[in-house]
Each structure stands twice: as structure tokens, then as C-alpha cells.
Write a structure and sequence with these properties.
The protein has about 290 residues and is mainly beta.
Length: about 290
């Protein structure tokens, strides 16, 4: 493509979407890789562009969320949010469902926007900045919100793990916990890698702790991803760990890439895909 790709790919509806460090969204035709369109946005893109009904939703590093027409990349609307003085380098990827865009920001706020017009449906503070220094007051939402049914699950750095109603923003439960990677959700539990690389399983209904694994402490874990009866998580040395979803014990371990794993593992149709920092893509199944 000849562009400095900094985010993506996002894909769907015949398009492959990339974000660049030069503040552009690049849409490729999925069939042959040709460029469908290229559109400028307000700043560098660090989160994966998402496809809505007829538009592309992208969140930029300066706190903006923009909707672009999926047909030609023309701008439909922009939601502008200021960024604190000091933040983590990263941006939450918006979640799109039921005509609503759920976006997390560097000030600990979670906002629901109308997908077609961009107006605010609701806004709530998942974490409130505290402390005397700017460093202590960092409460970034860098992990992507996860929508399951009518519930939105979200976690913040130096803040909380919480569940909210997608229609109203009403809080279901909240747990003090710090994570910048995000979380995974299955039919009964929420899985979180905290900032010390402890892996937690929390009850979806109450937020109560089901189990905690601290064996992988300080290994810079990825988002924990549910995979059959296990939870898959990668680390800085390139190992993929499979944890039992019932008690958190390490059931299996394999080295994927000696340069580490930073990207979130992806599960599709009982296959687990893991992409290493050295460029190795591996697909695993449970035997």
C-alpha cells in the first residue's frame, strides 16, 4: 500500500480497513486488494476501524470518533472529545451493535453514540481520575468494550472493571481493577489480565471473583480469550498459555513466536488464531 499502517485490519462487507499513522483510513477491496478509497481523519489511528451498517467507525488518537461512508469514505459525522495531558499510548477500539457505537476514552468515560447521526445516547464515568500527579490520574480505557446481548463490559487502567446496560448506560456492577489490555467474556464469566499480569475470572452476574492466577505475573499478557473450555492468553516471550476456565490452572503451553505476542488471539469456528510480533500467524485447535 505504501502507507504507514498503524492499526487494523478491520474487515466486512467486501472491505478490508486499515488505519495509518498519517491520519488516514485506507479501504481495500477484499476480493483483490485494490484500493476502494482513502480518507483523511483528524489524527493518527491506533485502533481497528469498525464496520457498521453502511459506515466505517474509526477512533483517533486525539479523542475523536468519526463515521465515514463505507461506499466512498466521505465523512458523515465526528464526535470530539479532548484528551488528558498524560495518557497511555493506545486507543480503545469502538464496539458497534444495535445501531449504537460504544467508545471508551482516556478520561475513563464510556460513551454511547448513535451510529447514523453521532449524537450522544448516554455517557458514564467508569473510572474517576484520582491522585496529585498526572501519572496517578491516568484512567485510560484502552481495552476494547465487549458487547454481549444488552450488556457492555469494559475495563480501565488504574480504575475498574464494569458492566453497563447498552441502552441506558446504567451500571450493573463494578470492581476496582487496573488493566489496559481489555477483557474476554463467555457465557458465565469475564476474564481480565490486570496490570501485574494476574489473570482473573469474574462472575458475569455479580463481578465476584471465581479464580485468580498469578503464576504469569509480569509477563505482559494479552487479552484473555475464551476458547472452548479454556482461556487463551499470550505473553512477552511469545508463549501461548491455555488456562482452564473452571479453576485457572495452566492446562497447556506452546511457544508461538520468540519475539513475543502482543496482539489479541482470535477465535473463529473452534480455531484459535495467534499472531506473533515476528510476523508468524498460527492456527490451533483442541485435540
Amino acid at each position: 500500500t505504501g502507507v504507514a499502517v498503524s492499526a487494523g485490519p478491520g474487515a466486512g462487507e467486501g472491505l478490508v480497513l486499515l488505519g495509518t499513522s498519517d491520519a488516514e483510513v485506507l479501504a481495500l477491496n477484499a476480493a483483490d486488494g485494490s484500493v476502494a478509497w482513502q480518507a483523511a481523519v483528524s489524527s493518527e489511528i491506533l485502533s481497528v476501524p469498525q464496520l457498521g451498517l453502511d459506515n466505517v467507525i474509526v477512533q483517533t488518537a486525539d479523542g475523536n470518533v468519526a463515521a465515514l461512508d463505507a461506499a466512498d469514505g466521505s465523512q458523515l459525522w465526528v464526535y470530539d472529545r479532548s484528551v488528558p495531558v498524560l495518557t497511555l499510548r493506545g486507543t480503545s477500539t469502538p464496539a458497534v451493535r444495535h445501531g449504537v457505537v460504544i467508545a471508551g476514552f482516556s478520561n475513563g468515560k464510556l460513551v454511547a453514540l448513535s451510529e447514523d447521526q453521532g449524537f450522544v445516547v448516554w455517557e458514564t464515568s467508569v473510572a474517576i481520575p484520582k491522585g496529585r500527579s498526572e501519572l496517578e490520574r491516568i484512567v485510560d480505557i484502552d481495552g476494547s468494550p465487549v458487547i454481549v446481548g444488552t450488556a457492555v463490559y469494559v475495563t480501565t487502567f488504574q480504575g475498574s472493571v464494569a458492566v453497563l446496560d447498552i441502552q441506558s448506560g446504567d451500571l450493573g456492577w463494578k470492581r476496582d481493577m487496573s488493566s489496559h489490555t481489555g477483557l474476554g467474556v463467555d457465557f458465565s464469566q469475564v476474564y481480565v489480565s490486570d496490570d501485574q499480569s494476574h489473570v482473573w475470572a469474574l462472575s458475569r452476574s455479580s463481578g465476584a471473583s471465581e479464580w485468580k492466577l498469578d503464576e504469569l505475573e509480569y509477563r505482559q499478557l494479552t487479552v484473555p480469550v475464551p476458547f472452548n473450555d479454556y482461556v487463551a492468553v499470550g505473553d512477552l516471550e511469545g508463549y501461548l498459555h491455555l488456562l482452564s476456565r473452571y479453576d485457572g490452572r495452566v492446562a497447556a503451553r506452546v511457544r508461538v513466536d520468540s519475539k513475543g505476542i502482543r496482539g489479541q488471539p482470535v477465535v473463529q469456528q473452534d480455531v484459535l488464531y495467534v499472531y506473533g510480533n515476528g510476523g508468524k500467524l498460527v492456527a490451533y485447535s483442541i485435540q
